[in-house]
Amino acid sequence: MRGRTIFGDLVPYGEKWRTGANNNTKISFDTNVVIDGKELKAGTYAIYSIPKENEWEVLFYEDSNNWGLPQDWQDSKVALRATAPVQEMPMTMQTFTILIDELQNDSAVLNFIWENTIATLPFEVPTDERAMASIERVMNGPSAGDYFAAATYFHDEKKDLNKAYEWIKKAVEIGGEDAYWVVRRKALIEADLGKKKEAIATAKKSLAAAEKAGNKDYVKLNQDSLKEWGAM
Questions:
Q1: pTM higher than 0.90 for the full model?
Q2: Closest CA to 151 of 174, 179, 171
Q3: Distance linking the first and last C-alpha atoms of the chain
C-alpha cells in the first residue's frame, strides 16, 4: 500500500485490472471446475478483474502470457466471468494477496485481499465424481492395460518372468487377441521362459492381428521372431 489509497484510486473502480503486477497472475486447474454456477475447463488462465465497491467481476482469460493487460483484448478469450462479493476487513492488508481458503472435499474459496477489502470467489471441484470413478475402477480390478504395463515392466527389467507371464495372460484374456502388441509381448515372454512351441503359436496370432490392422512394424517384428525361432 505504501500509504496509498488502493481501491477507487490506485485501482480504479469499474475498469479492468491486471489483478497483480507485471506478468499475468495465473491460475491452473487440472480438472474442470464450477465457478459462479458455470463450468471452467481444466487449463491455465490469466486472472483479470473489474473491481467495484460491492463486488468484483473476475475474468478467466485464456491467453496467460501477457505483461499486464493484453494490448489486444479479446472478449472471445474470456473463458468465464464470475462475480465475487466484497467484504470490508477489520484490519489492513499491506500487500496484495491471493489465498485459496475454506478448503472442503469438493470446494474452496479464492480470496483477493488488499487494503481493507476482501473479494471472495467460491469454486467447486468434481471430487465425488473422480473418487467414485477411481473406486469403481479399483473395485472392478486391474484393466488389460494395467496387466500389460506390469508384465512389460517385469519382462523388460528381467524380474519374475512367471509373474510377468501370469499378468500378460490376463491382459490378453481381458483385452482380446486383436491387441497384437499385447499378444506379441506374450510371445516374447513365452520365448524367454523356454516355451518355444507356445511362443510360435502366439507370435502367429500377433502377426495375423497386425496384418489385419495394417501395422507393418508389428508384422515385421513377428516375422523376424518367427524366423529366429525356426517357424518361417
A1: no
A2: 171
A3: 81
